[in-house]
Amino acid sequence: MLIDEQLRTLGGYGESFRDKLRDRTLTPLSLKTFQINVGKVCNQACRHCHVDASPARTESMSREIADLCLETIAAVPEIETVDITGGAPEMNPIFTHLVEGSRRLGKHVIDRCNLTILEDSSYAYLYDFLADNEVEIIASLPHFSAASTDRQRGAGVFAKSIRALLKLNALGYGHTLPLNLVYNPVGLFLSSSQAQLEREFKEKLRDGFGVVFNRLYTINNLPVSRFLESLVRRDKFQEYMDLLTGAFNPATVEGLMCRNQVSVGYDGGLYDCDFNQMLEMETRPVGHIRYFDYDLFMSRSIRTANHCYGCTAGAGSSCGGEISSQPTTGVVTS
Q: What are the pLDDT digits (tens) for 304-313?
């Protein structure tokens, strides 16, 4: 589905997200996280992928853009974390350059890893590389059962993921090094309690496979790219949007990830979040890393559209999982 078709589909749904906020303008609070999407090349083609990544994609960040990112990170002391994502970010040759450059600057680095890439012989060196650089791994694992995971990601993905997790455990991940998992619901529903799911995942993976990890993050599926296409194709778009809007939780607004980060695209475009990036909703007035100006960036208004209901439904959804433990009321009070 083309970008303009996605926006028309989302824009045509019921009460707009801006109206739900009662015309309240979202503004940034900090720039603690510098997220870099290095491209859409991936060794998988998952059904829910909001990036529309696959082995057939060619979009990849260049060394020039990567160096501009590192220059910006060096120039903004407020940045604490460099969050590298994709696609499978490890498949871009500049991945190791970004990791080493960010670590030299004293930044905490996150690799958003699909796990199976580590089991490709061409990338097996990454096990030691990630551990040596003390990179936090946030690994996507749809479920603790093989059937559920393979249904969403492809045959054999669960077995490869377990092998990768065990090798990471042997290197200290889940013990002295941070290893966190991400759960996306497979069906048309929101995640249940993150704490409850974390307990269940830990028990099933430990007892069934000997795998240990630190935290589980639950993330709602946002109606963007491949997941939106699936909803429209199955005539489930209205149903899913009704679910999201009915679960709107104003307590999540203060903690939205877009308020404390920048998301940089493979071509250097600047966005409030990775989802806005997939809809080509660049930040204003600064829209490219080449022209980054901290004061201008922090004075912007965050761009919203109806996909933002996904981040504000239920307990909320962000790159770090749940946002709020407060109950859903559906009413903005501030």
A: 999 999 999 9
